[in-house]
Amino acid sequence: MQYDRTDARILEIVQKNNRLTSEVIGELAGLSATACQRRLKRLRSAGIIEADVSIVSAKAVGRPIQMLVLVSLERERADIIDRFKKAIKTSSEVVNGFYVTGDADFVLYITARTMEDYEKFTRRFFYENPDIKGFKTMVVMDRVKAAFAIPIELPQQD
Question: Which tens digit of pLDDT belongs to each residue from 35-81?
């Protein structure tokens, strides 16, 4: 789907604060509230806006241990990759998961209440999975930035 400069402005606005009303977004983007609602609906149905979420503090909800985990699979076969993707999607401990190139096959962002809980998770999620060759855990010492805002490219004018 193509988007225009007005859509780009709406995307910039909602990435900063998706709790604004259509009236406020429209005012900031130079549209009526109704036109803004129509554009937001179109951007959502086209998959340009994937979700409207809130960033929650892991510490505030009792999950202060945060890790980035590099995971290597035994073999890169489609069925193994698909199975591991499904496991990622169904695990509440895995907040974000990425299939990547390089030294690892996947990078996971995981939260836990305690290191003991993380150890239990690793036994269940990694050690009991015969498709996992290995994993490397990096404990997050400080979350410097938490955002999902993507730089919005303005469409070329004809």
Answer: 999 999 999 999 999 999 888 999 999 999 999 999 999 998 999 99
Measure the CA–CA gap between 150 and 69, rounded to whole angstroms. Answer: 23
- pLDDT tens-digit readout, 76-102: 899 999 999 999 999 999 999 999 999
Question: Is the separation of the CB atoms in 101 and 95 below 8 Å?
Answer: no
With contact defined as beta carbons under 8 Å apart, do 64 and 58 qualify? yes
CB 35 within 8 A of CB 26: yes
Angle between helices 22-29 and 5-16 in degrees, nearest 10: 130
